[in-house]
């Protein structure tokens, strides 16, 4: 195989595995936060507003971690800066 | 094997494994959120509306993580941008 | 072995493993949701309607994740788009 | 070994492992749902009807996941669509 | 080794491992269901009839999953449909 | 090594590992059921009869799963049907 | 190495590992049953008779699983039926 | 393959895996902190201010750990100082 | 290496690992039974006699499992019946 | 590949994995400390001052561990003292 | 390497690993028994005599399991009976 | 590769992994100690002095373990005594 | 490499790993025993004498297990009896 | 590579891994003991003296286990007795 073929091949595999692994625990963390929010809502319905605000900020923070992973995967798939060393 | 055959082969395997791994923990997280929603409903039936709204937002957030994974898998299967380096 | 034989072989193995792994945690998540629904029914029999509705929506969401996995597996088995690069 | 022999061999192994892995967690999930149903029955004997209905729907949903796995295994053993590429 | 010898060898190993793995979690699930049934019996002796009925249906459902696994193993040992491609 | 030697060797190893793995979780499940039966006996001594009946049925169901495994192992050791393809 | 040497070697290793693995979880299950029996004795000293009877039946059932494993190991060490194919 | 190709290939794979692994446990830790904040809000609505301040400081500390990982990954992808030894 | 050397080597390794693995879980099970016995003694000092009798029978049963493992290891080290096939 | 290329390659991979592994458990530990601080705040709002001081000291101690890891990774990437043996 | 060198080498490694693995779980079991004894002492100081007697018998039983492992390791290091086959 | 290159390479990798593994559990242990200190502060605000003193001694002890690891890593990176055998 | 070099190399590695593995669980067991002793002291300060005596005997028993491991490691490092077969 | 180079290389790696593994569980055990001491202090402030004495003895015992590991690592790095066989 040519060098380029090897790099295409392994980059594809790495991207697939990285996104699969990278959404795992953020999903679990979201599930935990949401389930706790639901429990808090059932216990203190009158403080729904502050619960919802905290939940949304929290989900955004966790989502940001998954986004880091997605961004790196997209960089690898669409515009890998390391390939410039080879294409020169 | 030709280069292209190797890439087809490993991309297929990676896509299959990535989707299998990538739906695992989102499913678990959903199960957790739903089961907590059911418990909250049984404890506070009168706040059903806010529980359902929180649950749906939460499920959508978790689903989005699984969708990230599905999108990357579909990109790899149907239109892998890295293949352009080889087809040129 | 010819290239095509290798691809058939690994695609078959990957499809089998992917469906086996991909139904694992959705099944667990369903079991969790159902068992919680049963507990809620025993604690609040009068809110059966809203419990059942929430449970069905939840099971459908989890099922959708397993369906993603099944769809990818069926695409690989019956009509793998990557094979077009080779058959051309 | 001939190409066909390799494919027969690996398909057999993959089918055996896939069905073994694929029934694992659905079984666990069923055990969880059933044990919760039994506990609910002991706590609320008078709502037996709605408990049984929920349990049966739940078991059917979980069973469906194991059936997905069984179907893929049977497709691989009896009529693998990928083999047509080779038999042509 | 001849092709047929390799296939006999790996099929035997796969069958042994598949049945060993495939009875693992159904056994655990049964143990869970039975132990819960015993606890429910101790707590509500008068609803023994409905507990036993639910337990038997549940055990049959779990047993069915182990049977799927056993059937696939027996098919592989006694009458593997894939072998027809080779014996022709 | 001759073909037959390889098959004897791997069949022996597979049989030993399969029975070792196959009795693991049934043993655990039995331990769970028995320990729960003992707890129920201590809590409800007067319903000993129905507890013992449920326990025995349960142990028989779990034992059946271990027997499946033992039967497959004995078939492999004493009369492997796949060997007929080679002895012909 | 001769064929026979390989088989002696692997059979010895397989026997040693199988017995080591095969006594693991039965031991754990026994420990669980015994510890529960001790707790039940402390809670209900007057029903010692039925507790002891249940415990002994349970330990015998679990022991039977370990015996299956021991029997297979002894068959492999002392009189492996598969060796007849080679000694003929 | 040339030396540079190997380095590009492995750097890409390492970057993908490192970001996937590196966001895992920070995500879990955030989920834990957020879910506890939600519980505290439900129990002590009047101290919302100090709870939110502590939560934000905590999330920032955890996020900093994920950022360390992201920074190293970006250094590897965009400007790896070790490459200067080779490009000289 | 001669055949005999290989067999001596692997038998030694297998014996060492088998005894190490084989005492693991029996030790854990004993620890569990003893700790429960101590708790029962503290709760019901007057039924010390029946607690001690049950504990000793239980420890003997668990010890028997470790003895199975020790016996197989000693057979392998001192008088392996399979070696007769080679020494003849 | 030249010696230098191999060292660049493995150093890069090791740095990426080390930072990914090294932030994992500090993140988890921080999550634990923060979530406990939030619970303590909800239970004892009046001792906020001493809780915050303890939390900050604790987070600094845990952060120091992650910093050790980051420092070693940066040493490896930017100025590895072992390379002097080769560049001389 | 000569045969004897290989055997010395692997025996040494196996002995080191076996003793390391073999003291693991007995240590854990002892820790469990001792910690329970301490709790029982705190709850029932007046039955110290019977608690200490039970604890000592239990520790001796667990220690015996670790001794089995130590004995096999010493046999392998100092006087391996299998070596006689080679020294003859 | 020259001998020195191999040693530089593996020392670098080992140092990176060792520091990553070596800070893992000390971090977890610190998290546990700190979270317990926070809980104790909330329960007994008046004994803050003795809690803080115990916490600091404990954190110092745990930190010392991580320092052992860091020292060995720095010795390997900056002044490995074993290298003198080679440089002589 | 000469035979002796191989043996020195593997013995060193085995000794390092064995001591690392062998102190793991004794340390955990000690931590458990000590933490329970501290809890008992807080609950029953007046029985400090018997608690301390039991704790010291227990720690000595657990320490003995770690000492077994240390002794075997020192035998391997300083005076391995198996080396006499080679030095003769 | 020369023999000495191989030994230097593997000794360095083994030392790094051994110290990393060897401080793991002692750290966890310390964390457990300290957190329990903090809880006991909060529950029984007046018995601070005996709690601190027990904690210090316990930490010293656990530290001794980590020291065993450190000593073996330092012996391997600075003065490995096995090297005398080679330097002679």
From TrEMBL, chains A, B, C, D, E, F, G, H, I, J, K, L, M, N:
UniProt site (Reversibly protonated during proton transport): 63
Organism: Thiohalocapsa marina
Transmembrane segments: 55-78
Residues of the V-ATPase proteolipid subunit C-like domain: 14-76
Protein's recorded name: ATP synthase subunit c
Membrane association type: Multi-pass membrane protein
InterPro entries, per the entry: ATP_synth_csu_bac/chlpt (IPR005953), ATP_synth_F0_csu (IPR000454), ATP_synth_F0_csu_DDCD_BS (IPR020537), ATPase_proteolipid_c-like_dom (IPR002379), F/V-ATP_Csub_sf (IPR035921)
NCBIfam families in alphabetical order: ATP_synt_c
Family indicated by similarity: Belongs to the ATPase C chain family.
Any one GO molecular function term: lipid binding
Subcellular location: Cell membrane; Membrane
Biological role: F(1)F(0) ATP synthase produces ATP from ADP in the presence of a proton or sodium gradient. F-type ATPases consist of two structural domains, F(1) containing the extramembraneous catalytic core and F(0) containing the membrane proton channel, linked together by a central stalk and a peripheral stalk. During catalysis, ATP synthesis in the catalytic domain of F(1) is coupled via a rotary mechanism of the central stalk subunits to proton translocation. Key component of the F(0) channel; it plays a direct role in translocation across the membrane. A homomeric c-ring of between 10-14 subunits forms the central stalk rotor element with the F(1) delta and epsilon subunits.
């Amino acid at each position: 195989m040519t060098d380029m073929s090897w790099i295409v091949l392994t980059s594809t595999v790495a991207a697939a595995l990285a996104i699969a692994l990278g959404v795992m625990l953020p999903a679990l963390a979201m599930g935990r936060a949401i389930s706790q929010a639901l429990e808090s809502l059932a216990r203190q319905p009158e403080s729904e507003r502050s619960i919802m605000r905290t939940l949304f900020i929290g989900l955004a923070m966790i989502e940001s971690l998954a986004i880091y992973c997605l961004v790196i995967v997209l960089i690898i798939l669409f515009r890998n800066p390391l390939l410039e060393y080879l294409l020169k």
